[in-house]
């Protein structure tokens, strides 16, 4: 190649001797020389372009390989629920994908209003953790769900250089991007620092981050949801041990093995043939502060109210359900509820039906479900705890109860409740005989699925769906359309589970009463476990008559179980439609906190 270049550049020269001196005859450059030089420059330019293109292509290939490796490996690690292993993976791959000097991966801990960061210190492969408030550059990205690409960090007023000054590291360029679920909720933030070769982060880097977010965010949210609460509760020394036991029982299926407004129904769908009594009772039934004691004591009024619930949605006429058959089914279900159980009894069934009716008629969910699903959800609410013995699934499994054997230790009680509910429905051929085969299958599917969803082992799964689904309930409400198929089924499950855990959202007097009933039922099981020599959970052994002793557990139950569920339901509904309900839940938590602090508390508390 050098020989060829020399040929292109040679000049015409002649040499001679004159009086001992050397004379060099140099010929002037010609047009051919210019042409050869031009050719040389073109070849050199092409050579440089090819070299640069090859380097860019190699870098692009390496980035894509890192992205594909991340996507293929991430799913397995996310399914394992190992947050640290996933964080290590995304940090390693991000350094390659974004060609930067440092990376930090943050998950959003909304429970504590903090960011949990993962990073590798210089020269250390050990994964480090830090907790920081939701503020600064990362906090701004997490709060606004907007990417930040900063070319000169120190000149940006949003950047704090305190860490740089303390460590001696100089942050120059910064790319900080949110990882948001399909519903737009930010669940993590990835921060890349100092692009290599003194370059800036560009549009390609931003698009790469958007790709990572779109493909992994919903999976990351599931992992964060499943690990975040456990990690926080179990590692936080400020949380009472009994609360930790309670949390494990609820979230792991057993550690040892007028608030919101009611939507006005259109006149065409209003109660028509129901008697005046039903109208009056249903009017009270449509309030969040409804007290059901009187209703339970008067069977005629109860039956009128329940007929009114079904008639409100036009279900009796739409599916040609004989009122007498509905009354007989209700009576049969009531007879199957245990009188021994102090909480999971007929009163709880009506309370859950009440909450289900409130949700179905609220501005949040009114009109979103098909009629078959509404019918099934009302049936499921009444039957969701039928034949409950007053013991937990763990107790039934540990005692080798016949129900545990029948249902293979899996969702034992919930499987039985669903089976009995559907069995009693099938016992009267007139009740649902006018339903088409397809509608009858759908009703059964919704009943079984939603009742199985009341198993606390599925609590996190329900919250994750509420926070990550893309059903767009706001858009459906505005367009007058309804949910269909799987999305409708998931919403039915979430609504019944929320209705089952409604009492923290009710007026203090009602919530306190039901909390004491739960405590009494737990205490009864605790004593029976001690008698049988079975493992026990200390929180279940608390004296149900001692409010001060129960207070820490109730605060924990609301903070870690009830509030996250209802917050997720409000998030899914959109437009903050259940804000008043959340306010009531928080108020009841504060009252329990006051009791735990030894303060006197009146039963007459503000509501709604």
Features:
608 residues; alpha+beta; six-stranded antiparallel beta sheet; two-stranded antiparallel ribbon; 8 strands
Give the tally of β-strands: 8
Overall average residue pLDDT: 84
N-to-C terminal Cα separation, in Å?
Answer: 87 Å
The portion of residues forming beta strands comes to 5-15%
Main sheet strand line-up: 5-4-3-8-7-6
Annotation field: number of helices: 24
Tell me, briefly, the overall form: elongated
What is the CA-based Rg, rounded? Answer: 34 Å
Largest sheet: 6 strands, antiparallel
Based on helices, strands and strand pairing, what is the structural class? alpha+beta
Helix content: 55-70%
> Spans with pLDDT under 50 lasting ≥5 residues?
1-9, 11-15, 254-262, 264-274
Q: How would you describe the overall organization of this protein?
A:
The chain is of the alpha+beta class. It contains 24 helices and 8 strands. The strands form 2 sheets. Strands 5-4-3-8-7-6 form a 6-stranded antiparallel beta sheet, with helices on both faces. Strands 1-2 form a two-stranded antiparallel ribbon. Strand 1 and strand 2 (21-26) form a beta hairpin.
């Amino acid at each position: 190649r050098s020989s060829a270049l020399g040929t292109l550049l040679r000049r015409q020269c002649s040499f001679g001797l004159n009086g001992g001196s050397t004379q060099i005859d140099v010929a002037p450059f010609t047009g051919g020389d210019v042409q050869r030089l031009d050719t040389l420059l073109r070849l050199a330019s092409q050579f440089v372009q090819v070299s640069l293109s090859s380097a860019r292509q190699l870098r692009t290939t390496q980035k894509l390989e890192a992205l594909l490796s991340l996507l293929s490996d991430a799913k397995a690690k996310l399914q394992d629920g190992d947050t640290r292993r996933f964080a290590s993976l995304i940090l390693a791959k991000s350094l390659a994908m974004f060609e930067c000097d440092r990376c930090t991966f943050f998950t959003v801990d909304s429970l504590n209003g903090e960011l949990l960061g993962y990073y590798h210190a210089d020269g250390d492969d050990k994964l480090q953790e830090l907790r920081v408030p939701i503020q600064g550059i990362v906090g701004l990205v997490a709060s606004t769900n907007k990417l930040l690409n900063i070319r000169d960090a120190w000149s940006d007023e949003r950047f704090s250089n305190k860490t740089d000054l303390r460590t001696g590291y100089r942050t120059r360029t910064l790319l900080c991007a949110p990882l948001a679920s399909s519903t737009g909720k930010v669940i993590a933030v990835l921060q890349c620092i100092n692009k290599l070769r003194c370059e800036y982060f560009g549009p390609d880097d931003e698009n790469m981050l958007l790709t990572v977010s779109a493909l992994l965010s919903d999976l990351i949210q599931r992992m964060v949801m499943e690990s975040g609460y456990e990690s926080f509760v179990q590692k936080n020394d400020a949380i009472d041990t009994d609360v930790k036991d309670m949390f494990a029982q609820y979230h792991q299926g057993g550690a040892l093995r007028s608030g919101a407004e009611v939507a006005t129904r259109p006149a065409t769908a209003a109660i028509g043939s129901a008697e005046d009594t039903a109208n009056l009772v249903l009017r009270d039934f449509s309030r969040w502060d409804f007290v059901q004691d009187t209703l339970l004591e008067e069977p005629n009024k109860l039956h009128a109210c329940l007929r009114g619930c079904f008639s409100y949605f036009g279900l009796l006429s739409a599916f040609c359900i004989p009122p007498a058959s509905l009354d007989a089914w209700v009576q049969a279900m009531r007879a199957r509820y245990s009188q021994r159980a102090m909480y999971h009894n007929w009163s709880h069934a009506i309370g859950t039906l009440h909450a289900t009716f409130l949700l179905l008629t609220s501005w949040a969910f009114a009109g979103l479900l098909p009629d078959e699903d509404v019918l099934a959800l009302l049936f499921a609410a009444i039957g969701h705890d039928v034949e409950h013995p007053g013991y937990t699934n763990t107790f039934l499994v540990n005692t080798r109860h016949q129900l545990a054997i029948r249902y293979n230790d899996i969702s034992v009680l919930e499987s039985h409740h669903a089976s009995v509910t559907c069995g009693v429905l099938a016992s009267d051929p007139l009740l649902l005989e006018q339903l088409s085969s397809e509608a009858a299958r759908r009703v059964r599917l919704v009943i079984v699925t939603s009742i199985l969803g009341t198993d606390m082992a599925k609590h996190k799964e329900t919250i994750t769906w509420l926070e990550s689904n893309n059903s767009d309930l706001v858009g459906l409400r505005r367009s007058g359309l309804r949910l269909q198929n799987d999305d409708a089924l998931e919403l039915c499950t979430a609504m019944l589970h929320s209705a089952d855990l409604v009492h923290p959202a009710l007026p203090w007097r009602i919530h306190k009463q039901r909390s004491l009933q739960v405590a009494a039922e737990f205490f009864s099981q605790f004593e029976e476990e001690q008698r049988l020599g079975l493992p026990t959970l200390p929180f279940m052994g608390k004296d149900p008559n001692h409010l001060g002793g129960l207070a820490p557990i109730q605060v924990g139950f609301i903070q870690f179980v009830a509030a996250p569920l209802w917050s997720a339901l409000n998030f899914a509904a959109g437009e903050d439609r259940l804000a008043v309900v959340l306010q009531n839940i928080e108020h009841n938590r504060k009252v329990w906190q006051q009791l735990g602090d030894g303060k006197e508390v009146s039963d007459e508390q503000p509501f709604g």
